């Protein structure tokens, strides 16, 4: 080496600057992780806020439906009181078993089907009146509108027979 090139200045190799750089890099990394964690937490809270609002609305709606159901619920009629159940079981065990044929099913007439609500009727809340044979009675009335009219046995309305109040069916 020549003197003109000059001596190279070298720093002592004690390792102090590397340790400092690692500490700064580590603290920077930790700060970055903390900032990202806070940002993620904030994002999750705001994204769940909409779901919480929807859930709260559904909860209020269910409470409302529950209140309506309890108000509109009719009591259930029991066939037998529960206190008589053991007595009933004792009788059933000692009584001889008799097999019988079920009673024959009779077909319902159109009037009976409409009166029972099994067949849809054109007028709301109207139930026809049936005689003992199941035929339509001569006078039919719709209580809601206070209208009456005359019909034949099949339920066909007689022309120009609708009046306010009772109708004069078969009477002239």
Strand order across the largest sheet: 1-2-3
Shape: elongated
Assess the beta-strand content as a share of residues.
5-15%
CATH architectural designation of the domain at 108-172: Irregular
Helix content: 40-55%
Reported for the largest beta sheet, the result is: 3 strands, antiparallel
Here the CATH topology of the domain at 108-172 equals: Invariant Chain, Chain I
Distance between the termini: 148 Å
The CATH class of the domain at 108-172, by name, is Few Secondary Structures
Which stretches are poorly predicted, pLDDT < 50 over at least 5 residues?
A: none
> Mean pLDDT, as a whole number?
77
Radius of gyration: 45 Å
Number of distinct beta strands: 3
**Count of DSSP-assigned helices:** 3
| CATH homologous superfamily (4th level) name of the domain at 108-172 | Thyroglobulin type-1
The assigned structural class equals mainly alpha
SSE order, as H and E? HHHEEE
Secondary structure elements and their pairing?
Blueprint: H1 16-72, H2 85-94, H3 110-116, E1 139-142, E2 147-150, E3 163-164
Antiparallel strand pairs: 1-2, 2-3
What's the short version?
By secondary structure, this protein is mainly α. Helix content is 43%, strand content 6%. It has helices at residues 16-72, 85-94, 110-116; strands spanning 139-142, 147-150, 163-164.
């Amino acid at each position: 080496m020549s003197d003109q090139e000059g001596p190279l200045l070298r720093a002592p190799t004690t390792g102090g600057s590397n340790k400092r750089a690692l500490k700064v890099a580590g603290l920077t990394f930790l700060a970055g992780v903390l900032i990202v964690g806070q940002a993620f937490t904030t994002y999750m809270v705001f994204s769940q806020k909409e779901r919480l609002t929807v859930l709260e609305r559904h909860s209020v709606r269910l409470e409302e439906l529950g209140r309506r159901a309890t108000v509109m619920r009719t009591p259930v009629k029991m066939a037998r009181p529960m206190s008589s159940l053991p007595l009933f079981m004792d009788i059933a065990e000692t009584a001889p078993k008799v097999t019988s044929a079920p009673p024959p099913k009779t077909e319902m007439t159109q009037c009976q089907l409409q009166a029972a609500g099994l067949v849809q009727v054109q007028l709301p809340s109207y139930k026809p009146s049936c005689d003992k044979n199941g035929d339509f009675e001569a006078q039919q009335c719709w209580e809601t509108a206070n209208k009456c009219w005359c019909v034949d046995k099949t339920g066909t309305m007689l022309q120009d027979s609708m009046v306010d109040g009772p109708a004069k069916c078969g009477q002239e």
